[in-house]
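Now read these lines:
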Amino acid sequence: MVGLFGLVQIEACEVARRQAFATFGLGQRSDQAGETGMTLREPPLYAQVAELLREKIRSGDLAPGELVPTERDLARDQQISRGTAVRALEQLVTEGLITPGSTRAGRRVRDLRILPIHASRSEQIDHRKAAGVDAWVSDSQEHGRVPGQQIEVGVVHADSEIAGYLGLNEGESVAVRRRLRTLDGEPSNLADTYYPMNIVQEVAEILDPADVPQGVVALMAERGLVQTRYRDHLRWRPPTPEEARKLRIGAGVSVLVQHRIGYVGDRPVKVSRHTWPGDTIELIYELPA
């Protein structure tokens, strides 16, 4: 027989057990006969709302390019707080399913179709001349996409990385062509190409902000600077805030940074820094066995 003191001890232990379950999110233990173990608590409300939107994107109810509900509309329609709506949307931004944005600018469903980039042929002069257009343009058009690019040019001081690739001293002046490339009107990737100033003296169009239809590699070949080989350096990393802003991706979408150094003989004549979102671009290399 259990005395009063024993009953008090048992009740105190039961209270402590229930408090532990509540504190650590372990759910409630079933006391019904034949049932053992614990049932997990439901996902947080914001995660449930995010899953509703995620399913609409998967099913096509929210198609690529479409606006997703604003924070205010989502809160009203789902009868949740605005803070919960914000967390749900931020979760989808982090996953790369929708673009970052605000109530005013709006968030859109990202187009996650993969664009294959033939990285090993893009520097081939014969291919460039046959295509008659920049490699980015030809690769995009081959897959029925509409390419575009915004170009900025200038002269900057080479950082240690760029200077090392070009065989220059850190801080030396180099010309740069910066391109924000788009697919079907949406940001796709970043491409910055740096040239030693003695190359610019031979190919002045490098500092012209107009597009070079055949591409600078083909133009350089026309001026006697025929690229004989290239070397790629590839690495993955999270996007910088500036890259995420330009590409309209969340911090959870890794980028592939590709440095390509072009040579005429043993002389480095350019280095391109491509920043590719990891979930929408596929680089293809064909190498001899």
